[in-house]
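Per your request, structure below.
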């Protein structure tokens, strides 16, 4: 009995104790006569209270609210003590019922008491929402102005969703279209369901996503409904799904993306019901119902469900947004404070919704590139008793304010030589994932302006590249923090290059930087034999060299820069498919080789092509320098090779050698193209015979 008083207190408040007076605080007597007399007085008082609130309970007798044993004792006591008047006999009948008949009547009376209590103190308050929550005319303009203010912490437009819905329902001409046998509260709830269904049925998410094979069959469309009852019109769960999605849009993608818009049988209705119950359980709605009970509805149960939805769903509307700004792959922590205005301890169950990629944890939210982290933090106040609190919904939004570099790698390689290596990539996330690789030549700074291309696309282009990735993605196992990336690096031009690789996965993105540093290498060794015959006829051995001087020697310079050519072709081969490579191999090291490269490249020119496009030049002029500043060799300032394509051919460079040159002289000769894109280094050995 005391538990029912607790129920009344939770619904009515402390006023119930005021009405019951001393009876609500008195301890239950141990003596049977006193105990039964006390309980019957308490029942009478409660029934009087419910009758005063409009409950239809005049047919309920207090004696049938007892358990059967107390009922028998009360009959025996009345029969044996009727003359003494120790018991209030006006409250007790002398009829002795069988257990079966008593249980049947007792259950019916308790059901009547429970339902009438629900009607008076729960259902009846629904209609009052129209007056409590609708804005007064004098405040409409103020609230409208507040709702248009953009704020990073509050969400006024979303938080007013329920109030706007009630105001619109109250002004709808169809509000009173429900059957006359419905009370005003039920009519209001039906109008509430109809309003949200009409709002949601035209949204993009409520579309038929079935795969239709028959070309004559069309996609289903959510039709208009006259929602006039709490059983048949709701049995396919679509209306209840619509009203749930109106207040909890974060459930749409996860729970409501595969619905039957027009259910054709019980199986399809059950499918929708399972999706709906799964969503309710996910957010801890606090109402126990099975999918089959939705498909085969009981009007009273569904009415209670709709009342519960009307009261609880507005608490799932986000009112606050918390933004997390941090650099890419870094972690930022914020503290969220929730106040409790009551004296009771309230326990909250914390849930993260729409956070399948684990961008956020309760303590460590993270952000990632191009996929802004966005999740809902639900504080379920109705999941853990004994005192329940209002649900709190907070939007967690992660933004990148700086594209930081997770790791830097430097690859040093000699000019025109290919280096094959494996990089150990440190992954800043712990979850298992496959990371797609993107590449950019620009230093990442702002996500909005970053231009990057997926490596799969770059690899398909027939362009030799300084940096070539031998794989399209990296795979990270659960709990691992490293992955291997196989790369090929070839310094095609004599300058340093920097590349940035962006690794993208659902778990988060990160960026690494690869620096390619070139080093000098010797192209070839050239041996020149010369003979000292006669005398030097040059007037000035440094500046006035004559063409007919016997001390002019010929240095054979290779026409083709074979290392450069071979480096370009080897990096080009990496872009070829097996069939293309088979065709290519037939013309390797021939005149057609370069033409094929140019033809396969077509007009696909990017920064990688600009680094080696000079390989197609026919005539090249070089600047000539020598390592020894006091060298006895007098070199031309410029040297031109008319055709740099032929292999195994040399072009003579006329060099004046001083008579004082020692018999064995070695120097390093450097040829640099005028555009500084090609670099040749030869070791010259001068042997005097």
């Amino acid at each position: 009995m005391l538990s029912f008083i607790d129920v009344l207190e939770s619904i009515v408040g402390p006023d119930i104790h005021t009405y019951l007076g001393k009876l609500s605080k008195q301890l239950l007597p141990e003596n049977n006569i006193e105990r039964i007399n006390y309980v019957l007085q308490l029942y009478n008082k409660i029934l009087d209270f419910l009758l005063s609130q409009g409950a239809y309970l005049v047919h309920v007798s207090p004696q049938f609210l007892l358990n059967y044993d107390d009922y028998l004792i009360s009959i025996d006591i009345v029969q044996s003590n009727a003359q003494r008047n120790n018991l209030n006999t006006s409250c007790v009948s002398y009829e002795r019922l069988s257990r079966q008949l008593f249980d049947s009547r007792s259950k019916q009376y308790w059901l009547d008491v429970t339902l009438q209590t629900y009607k008076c103190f729960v259902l009846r308050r629904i209609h009052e929402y129209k007056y409590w929550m609708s804005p007064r005319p004098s405040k409409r303009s103020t609230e409208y102005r507040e709702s248009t203010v953009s704020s990073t912490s509050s969400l006024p437009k979303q938080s007013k969703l329920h109030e706007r819905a009630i105001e619109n329902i109250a002004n709808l001409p169809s509000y009173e279209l429900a059957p006359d046998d419905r009370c005003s509260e039920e009519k209001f709830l039906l109008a509430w369901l109809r309003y949200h269904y009409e709002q949601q049925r035209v949204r993009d998410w409520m579309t038929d996503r079935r795969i239709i094979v028959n070309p004559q069959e069309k996609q289903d469309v959510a039709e208009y409904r006259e929602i006039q009852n709490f059983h048949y019109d709701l049995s396919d769960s679509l209306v209840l799904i619509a009203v749930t999605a109106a207040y909890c849009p974060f459930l749409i993608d996860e729970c409501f993306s595969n619905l039957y818009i027009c259910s054709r049988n019980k199986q399809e209705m059950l499918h929708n019901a399972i999706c709906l119950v799964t969503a309710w359980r996910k957010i801890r709605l606090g109402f126990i119902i099975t999918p089959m009970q939705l498909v085969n509805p009981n009007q009273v149960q569904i009415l209670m469900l709709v009342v519960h939805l009307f009261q609880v769903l507005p608490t799932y509307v986000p009112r606050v947004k918390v933004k997390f700004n941090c650099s890419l792959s870094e972690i930022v922590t914020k503290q969220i404070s929730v106040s409790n205005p009551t004296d009771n301890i309230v326990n909250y169950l914390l849930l993260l919704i729409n956070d399948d990629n684990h961008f956020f944890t309760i303590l460590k939210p993270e952000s990632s590139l191009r996929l802004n982290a966005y999740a809902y933090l639900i504080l379920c106040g109705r999941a853990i008793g004994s005192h329940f609190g209002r649900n709190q919904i907070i939007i967690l939004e992660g933004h990148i304010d700086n594209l930081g570099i997770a790791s830097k790698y430097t690859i040093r390689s000699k000019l025109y030589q290919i280096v094959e290596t494996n990089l150990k990539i440190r992954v800043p996330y712990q979850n298992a994932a496959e990371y797609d690789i993107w590449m950019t030549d620009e230093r990442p700074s702002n996500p909005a302006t970053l231009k990057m291309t997926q490596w799969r696309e770059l690899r398909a282009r027939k362009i030799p590249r300084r940096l070539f990735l031998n794989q399209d993605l990296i795979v990270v196992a659960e709990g691992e923090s490293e992955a291997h990336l196989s790369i090929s690096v070839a310094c095609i031009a004599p300058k340093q290059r920097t590349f940035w690789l962006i690794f993208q996965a659902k778990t988060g993105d990160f960026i690494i930087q690869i620096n390619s540093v070139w080093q000098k290498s010797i192209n070839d060794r050239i041996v020149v034999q010369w003979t000292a015959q006669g005398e030097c006829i040059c007037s000035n051995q440094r500046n006035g060299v004559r063409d007919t001087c016997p001390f002019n020697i010929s240095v054979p310079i290779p026409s083709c820069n074979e290392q450069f050519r071979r480096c370009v072709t080897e990096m080009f081969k990496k872009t070829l498919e097996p069939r293309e490579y088979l065709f290519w191999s037939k013309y390797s090291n021939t005149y057609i080789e370069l033409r094929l490269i140019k033809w396969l490249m077509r007009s696909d020119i990017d920064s990688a092509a600009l680094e080696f496009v000079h390989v197609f030049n026919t005539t090249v002029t070089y600047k000539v320098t020598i390592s020894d500043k006091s060298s006895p060799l007098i070199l031309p300032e410029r040297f031109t090779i008319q055709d740099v394509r032929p292999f195994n051919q040399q072009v003579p460079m006329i060099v004046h050698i001083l008579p004082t040159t020692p018999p064995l002289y070695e120097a390093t000769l450097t040829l640099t193209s005028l555009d500084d894109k090609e670099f040749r280094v030869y070791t010259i050995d001068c042997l005097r015979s």
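Confidence is low (pLDDT under 50) at residues 130-152, 364-372.

Regards,
D.
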